Amino acid sequence: MTLIEAAPGLSDVSVAETTIGDVRGDEGLYHYNRYPATDLARSSSFERVWFLFVHGRLPDPAELDTFVERIRTDRVVPEDLVALARTIGSTPGDHRPLVDLRTVLSAAAQYTGMRPLWDCDEDTRRDDGIRLCAMVPTLLGEVHRAAHGLDPVVPREDLDTPAHWLHAVTGEVAGPDETRAIEQYLISTVEHGFNASTFAARVIASTGADLPSAICGAIGAFSGPLHGGAPDRALDALDAIAARGGPAMTVADAGDVARRWARDELDAGRRLMGFGHAVYRTRDPRSELLREVATRLGGRTAELAVEVERAVVEVLAEARPDRPRYANVEFYAGVVMDRCGLPREMFTPTFAVSRVVGWTANVLEQARDRHIIRPRATYVGPPMDPPV
Ligand code: ACO
């Protein structure tokens, strides 16, 4: 068999057919099953988009009501699993909520009776998928609250997912502007092609393992800073620029300060978090949407971010005129989440609250194809010793 040489990172390889969505990097567009994702974020509710990922079509009003009711029931987690989440969250050590979630979800198959995908029919897989996704915000909220010595939060039956998420973390019901901002963020980040976490989930699903295993693998891939782990670092960068400019720095000065900061970072060989993308060769439509959301919410950080974005994009273009880089989804995500009262450590977990819906759709699609994903590698080590 002749092996095909793929580009590093497999960037030039298509490994599956999908109807879930597509990212058109050269055009700066992405869609969910034909619907432009940023249009959905501007006009839909999170649950309506979630239904699209479960059923491959948008719901009518009655179907949406039934789906919303179901999510509100499914987000109530078995007591034993809540207790486990709180034990893990309160264990002494350096807590990372996604790592804690990964640990809790490892136990979820046992607590909830989720069986290997290979052994389940389509309806069971779909039910398990909805339930697991609905449990994720509740469990993340509990590991976070336990880590900070805060009381458990009883999920409220009258809240939709974005409001439930803010309530699960802070214990407060957020205002409508903050809730809608988080909802738009969640909708815009449900799915984004064969990124590292989605691919990891699909590889695991292709073995016929259970759904929680596939989601745990995805979370592991996602927790890395080159993938989902950058929004807090992007906000740290804004803080560093603000600190460098000092308390007297005006928003108008921020561009110059950011230019100097960005050049120094590049000279030191560091990456500018919240910029660049593996697929987009033009602006990331998610950062365009989130700039709009951040600006609508207002505040000094949002104003500063607009100036910093412009300056950093200029510096990156100076450094590589052949390969300009733009703000990615993470750059304004941190600004929006901070403004909505989420603590920095919960930024990447917020991403996971929506992305788990996309991972699950991919896992279920992969489970319908009964081939294991099993590529090969080209051996480049020393020649093999002759067999004895
Ligand atoms: N700052 C500085 N240099 C960069 C940046 C950046 N933000 N992005 C890319 N580069 C450089 C790389 O160091 C590399 O240089 P080299 O060829 O000299 O080694 C080169 O540009 C590679 O560029 P690309 O091919 O455009 O990017 P790649 O596909 O390798 O990486 C990635 C994409 C990982 C997102 C990268 O742009 C990056 O590290 N950005 C910062 C981290 C970040 O914001 N992550 C969140 C991404 S969004 C998401 O996953 C949800």
TrEMBL record:
Protein origin, superkingdom: Bacteria
Pfam families (alphabetical): Citrate_synt
Keyword Hydrolase on entry: no
PROSITE patterns: CITRATE_SYNTHASE
Pathway named in the protein's UniProt entry: Carbohydrate metabolism; tricarboxylic acid cycle
Keyword field contains Aminoacyl-tRNA synthetase: no
Keywords (A to Z) from UniProt: Transferase
Protein name according to UniProt: Citrate synthase
